[in-house]
Design brief:
By secondary structure, the protein is an alpha/beta fold. The protein has helices at 3-15, 22-31, 40-52, 67-75, 89-101, 115-120, 138-148, 177-190; strands at residues 57-61, 81-86, 108-112, 126-131, 149-158, 196-201, 207-212. β2 (81-86), α5 (89-101) and β3 (108-112) form a beta-alpha-beta unit.
Length: 214
Amino acid sequence: MRENTKVYDYISQTFHPDNQLDYVRDRMQETGREGMSISEAEAGLLQFFIRSFQIQSIVEVGCFLGFSAIQMARALPENGKLISLESDPKYFEIAQSHIERAGLSDKIEIKLGDAKDLLKQMQEPVDMIFIDADKGAYPEYLDWAEQYVRKGGLIFGDNSLLFGHAIHAEKPTNVSEKQWRAMRSFNERLADTKKYRATLIPTQEGLTVAQKLF
């Protein structure tokens, strides 16, 4: 077991001892792609920000099986709303069933389709966006966020270290040029202190968080 996995387990057991979503975790393990989801510790971090900044509306880019959507929605106020975008019809169906089981169908709406196309149809301001989808498209998702996340709202980008590849000034051999350039551009844009108050939290795969100042 990697040392940082032990750290995550300790954080989850100490601060987020919640087994109510074990059925979602079990289903993710069955797909063999559990790594596509955030951890309980990362979910707790998102919940902390949502409550602290009094977030009421969220757009999530990349739903997978609904774990992150459920966890974020649980931190929203009673009248809060989360819209989650998912491109895979199979994951879309499973996520919907998980959300219904969690009793959060009134707070979470999932839209099926390509996120870039769906975002073009969404022109209402929101308090927060959580991005965890196509790594090569992060700058395009940020284009939308710059227009529709309200001033003072939050922008999150998961996997923003690109599994360790984003830190290199030259493209590593085992990552695509598009993804490497996209993630570095995403982080560099959010590091602009004239537009954002931001940092990159060194989770296992990196989590960039920025507050929009304009």
